[in-house]
Design goal:
- The chain has 187 residues and is of the alpha+beta class.
- The chain has three helices and 13 strands; from the N terminus they run E-H-E-E-E-E-H-E-E-H-E-E-E-E-E-E.
- The protein has a five-stranded antiparallel beta sheet, covered by helices on one side.
- The radius of gyration is 23 Å and the shape is elongated.
Length: 187
């Protein structure tokens, strides 16, 4: 069997449902040997909303799903593009960049390595901030002894995920160092 990677186009926002439907059909039709992997290239990011840290999955390529498949069994290709079994599938990505149900174009191994490498790299960094801070930006302290104070970002330390923020305490500018998770962007 020769497994190659293909790109399946799906309705944007429905990628997870399509992936689950494909995986359920693989099990139901006993085609796991022909389709060993179905992936949605994504990364974990966190953001601060209303003073709370939220972790969410962010897709690298909205509307696209990667599947590793061997099309020597004609049922495999039909399974993925059958809209009755797998709703919200548009088709395979073709050479012209459009959707097709016939003759899908496999990805080059270099493309697969780049995409999968990006996914692995994202897993190494447990969380990445979705909304980085900028020097001079106004922020509100949400946690710690200075909770409720408003300050200005003086310096950003991305590698440590910390900020130097100047807040006014008793009429004096006071520098404090805070974690990304202790502050929220001020509207």
């Amino acid at each position: 069997m020769e497994h190659k990677w293909y790109v399946v186009r799906a309705v944007s926002g429905k990628e997870r449902r399509v992936k689950e439907a494909i995986e359920n059909e693989i099990v139901r039709q006993k085609l796991a040997d022909y389709i060993p992997q179905v992936l949605i290239p994504s990364e974990k990011v966190f953001e601060m909303r209303n003073g709370k840290k939220r972790v969410r999955e962010k897709s690298f390529f909205p509307g696209y799903i990667l599947i590793q498949a061997d099309f020597s069994n004609g049922e495999v290709q039909h399974l993925v593009t059958n809209k009755d079994l797998i709703p919200n599938v548009i088709g395979f990505l073709s050479a012209t960049g459009t959707s097709t149900t016939k003759n899908p174009l496999p990805l080059r191994q270099s493309e697969v390595n780049r995409i999968l490498g990006r996914v692995d790299e994202a897993e190494e960094y447990e969380e990445e901030l979705d909304t980085p801070f900028i020097v001079g930006e106004s922020v509100k302290v949400m946690d710690g002894p200075f909770s409720g104070f408003t300050g200005t970002v003086e310096e950003v330390f991305k590698e440590r995920k910390k900020l130097d923020v100047t807040v006014k305490i008793f009429g004096r500018n006071t520098p404090i160092e805070l974690n990304y998770t202790q502050v929220e962007k001020k509207d």
